[in-house]
Request: fold
Amino acid sequence: MTRLVIIVFLSLIWQQTFCWGFYAHKKINYQAVFLLPPAMLAFYKPKINFISEHAVDPDKRRYAVKEEGSRHYIDLDYYGPYPFDSLPRTWKEAVLKHSEEILQDHGILPWWLATMLYRLTEAFKEKNASRILKLSAEIGHYIADAHVPLHASSNHNGQLSGQKGIHGFWESRLPELLAEKEWDFFIGKAAYLKNPSGFMWSRILESAAAADTVLKIEKQLSFEFPSDQRFSFENRNGVLIRQYSSAYTLAYNKSLKGMVERRMRQSIYAVACFWYTAWVDAGQPDLLRLGNERFSEEDAKEFEVVNNAWRNKMAAFDTLKNKAYQHDED
Ligand SMILES: [Zn+2]
Reply:
């Protein structure tokens, strides 16, 4: 009994740790590269592993930089019912109406995306290869987060409806089980966005509108599956982790009518469109003649800090696991 309780507890921590899941974030950035026009593909393709691996840096940074957290979500329901007209779409007006403190408390994802797009466009103008790569990888992360319904809802992990763990269920467990085997990532080509901010707000509003469905369908399904069929145990590095069972995951995917695959495909498309738009707005610099291939000392330091913070977090998680097992053996 002790063992079961501890494992359940750990699995919830595990599931709360990630946005989209590391697997899906890396996959989204990776696939986005193939939507680029040849002039960009020639630069991005040889760097595809960097673009993919560093898709998760913003999540790792959450453990090193306090302000990072609010960049990954927006609790739109805080601002009233859909379509949340009480929330001005521009940062300036939103601050005037609600104060910066309130906005920070409830997430700043749409505005942070605008900042990232500006920075990426500037990096293209400066023809700074290392900055283009770093910012491309990171903006991909935030764009992908904007497509996750529970990133636009204050009930982000089902904590308000007795569904703790649903966040990771939707964005990690489903893609990890199904993306490679069943989902189609042939998407077409990136398009130029005349109004990137409007585009992103539409996607975030779609996310907010879908949050209820994500929660409601899982709730209904949970009545059809007894708890012992809803969860299974998987051995990860010698530790039993409780997770949603394959049968329950497949049933959820079916009831959602392909929502997770659709949002993942839309994320890939949006990421490629943002990269392409930044490049066009910077005057389409020749990417095969860029300087600054090497990362600056400051960048190298940041990679190190972010990775260390992440490793420390994981080490703390391991300590907890070990304690749990010692306790179990007592
Ligand atoms: Zn995130």
